[in-house]
């Protein structure tokens, strides 16, 4: 096999591509992981210090996948000898009879996830310095916590490399020639492989255009806001303050979520689960701040211990599908091209299992989970499908 010939090429070294490459290398496949930017970088969706991990979901299939996911994260911690997860619990607040709150609650209870329900009378004793909305229920997923994102990406890429995997960063893919052997061209080389995995995050449709496929994906910029504690430590991870999700509330249509102060001392990360559309190459020209206004109002009302003006604003992108579920599927016209896309702002925690599933699809194995919620076919019945 010539040095530019591989069993598999993976395009995109975000969390999903890196875990796919890791699983392929573990399966003994000669694997190339291509990344357009020099690593590490902060231009896609996987950068930043932290992400939430949780079993709490509105749908059973995600909760069920998370069971194994926790084990795979722990395995990576061992392999890389690094701490990637800190248990904090996740507090879900929302109208007791609201649709989303009930979906979370029912999924948690049905799947026997360890939880604690906080009655209104005991709420402030357990969760001080938070004004619960009148009528809101509160339930804690005690398995949830924080993943150290940048550290995790470095760890998975490090293990991939140790397994003999090849990472070429600073190499943007500019062409894909389909066929039984796929030819991938970058600015500095031409590579061939029996299979190709496309995990290009916000650039997924750019890459897919070389294969005559377009998916209904919307790329949005997220303002990643950190808010200063009036008294440092009020919402700190060391005081066992949990991550939280606020479902339905009067400030906005989408959820608000937060993580305890941890990575930047004295600052708590609280974000809105939606942003404004952007071209991924022009992210910094998208300067909308309506989401920050929503957060400021919410924080003024519910988190009185935070200054309601963000102290730090970083940028990240979501790639959102119409139903907010992932795309994990084979290309409809080229069976040796596998696609992982549309992680819709909640994919990081699933990295180990997404990688395993994309690896299984690549190797022609029966996937470990039912992939019907993630099929491309589901978009075909939509009136405005871009397929
Ligand atoms: C602010 C924010 C908060 C989030 N919070 C959470 C959370 O709490 N919990 C959670 O589970 N998830 C969370 N997510 C979602 C999660 O981070 C993403 O779903 C996940 O990182 C997506 O990974 P990816 O590998 O698909 O994309 P990316 O990380 O964007 O990776 C794609 C890679 O492909 C590369 N690429 C693109 N085109 C080319 C090309 N032509 N040639 C070579 N390389 C190319 C890109 O440069 C990029 O590195 C959050 C996301 C954001 C933005
Ligand atoms: O995936 C997550 O846990 C976070 C929080 C809720 C909204 C999206 N991302």
UniProtKB/TrEMBL annotation:
It is an enzyme of class 1 (oxidoreductase). One of its GO terms (biological process) is L-lysine catabolic process to acetyl-CoA via L-pipecolate. GO terms for cellular component: peroxisome. The lineage of its organism: Eukaryota, Metazoa, Chordata, Craniata, Vertebrata. Belongs to the MSOX/MTOX family. This is Peroxisomal sarcosine oxidase. It comes from Megalops atlanticus (Tarpon). It comes from the Eukaryota. Its EC number is 1.5.3.1, 1.5.3.7. SUPFAM superfamilies: FAD-linked reductases, C-terminal domain, FAD/NAD(P)-binding domain. InterPro entries: FAD-dep_OxRdtase, FAD/NAD-bd_sf, MTOX. Metabolizes sarcosine, L-pipecolic acid and L-proline. Its cofactor is FAD. The keyword Ligase does not apply. It catalyses: sarcosine + O2 + H2O = formaldehyde + glycine + H2O2; L-pipecolate + O2 = L-1-piperideine-6-carboxylate + H2O2 + H(+). The keyword ATP-binding does not apply. Residues 7-361 form the FAD dependent oxidoreductase domain. GO terms for molecular function: flavin adenine dinucleotide binding; L-pipecolate oxidase activity; sarcosine oxidase activity. Keywords: FAD, Flavoprotein, Oxidoreductase.
């Amino acid at each position: 096999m010539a040095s530019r010939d591989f069993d598999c090429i993976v395009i995109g070294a975000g969390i999903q591509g890196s875990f796919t490459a890791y699983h392929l290398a573990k399966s003994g496949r000669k694997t190339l992981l291509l990344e357009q930017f020099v690593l590490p970088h902060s231009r896609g969706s996987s950068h930043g210090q932290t992400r939430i991990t949780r079993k709490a979901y509105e749908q059973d299939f995600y909760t069920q996948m998370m069971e194994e996911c926790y084990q795979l994260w722990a395995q990576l911690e061992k392999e890389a000898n690094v701490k990637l997860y800190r248990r904090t619990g996740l507090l879900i607040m929302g109208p007791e009879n609201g649709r989303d709150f009930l979906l979370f609650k029912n999924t948690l209870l049905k799947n026997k996830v360890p939880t604690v329900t906080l009655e209104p009378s005991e709420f402030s004793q357990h969760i001080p310095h938070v004004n619960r909305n009148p009528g809101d229920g509160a339930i804690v997923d005690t398995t949830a916590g924080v993943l150290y994102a940048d550290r995790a990406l470095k760890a998975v890429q490090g293990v991939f490399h140790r397994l003999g995997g090849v990472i070429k960063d600073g190499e943007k893919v500019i062409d894909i020639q389909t066929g039984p052997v796929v030819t991938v061209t970058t600015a500095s080389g031409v590579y061939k492989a029996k299979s190709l995995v496309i995990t290009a995050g916000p650039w997924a449709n750019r890459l897919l255009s070389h294969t005559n496929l377009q998916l209904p994906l919307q790329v949005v910029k997220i303002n990643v806001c950190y808010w200063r504690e009036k008294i440092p430590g009020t919402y700190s991870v060391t005081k066992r303050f949990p991550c939280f999700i606020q479902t339905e509330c009067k400030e906005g249509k989408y959820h608000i979520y937060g993580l305890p102060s941890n990575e930047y001392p004295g600052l708590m990360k609280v974000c809105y689960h939606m942003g404004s559309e952007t071209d991924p190459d022009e992210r910094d020209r998208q300067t909308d701040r309506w989401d920050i206004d929503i957060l400021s109002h919410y924080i003024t009302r519910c988190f009185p211990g935070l200054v309601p003006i963000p102290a730090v604003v970083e940028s990240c992108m979501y790639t959102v599908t119409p139903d907010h579920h992932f795309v994990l599927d084979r290309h409809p016209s080229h069976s040796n091209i596998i696609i992982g896309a549309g992680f819709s702002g909640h994919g990081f925690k699933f990295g180990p299992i997404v990688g395993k599933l994309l690896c299984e699809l690549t190797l022609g194995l029966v996937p470990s989970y039912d992939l019907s919620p993630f099929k491309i076919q589901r978009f075909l019945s939509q009136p405005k499908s871009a397929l």
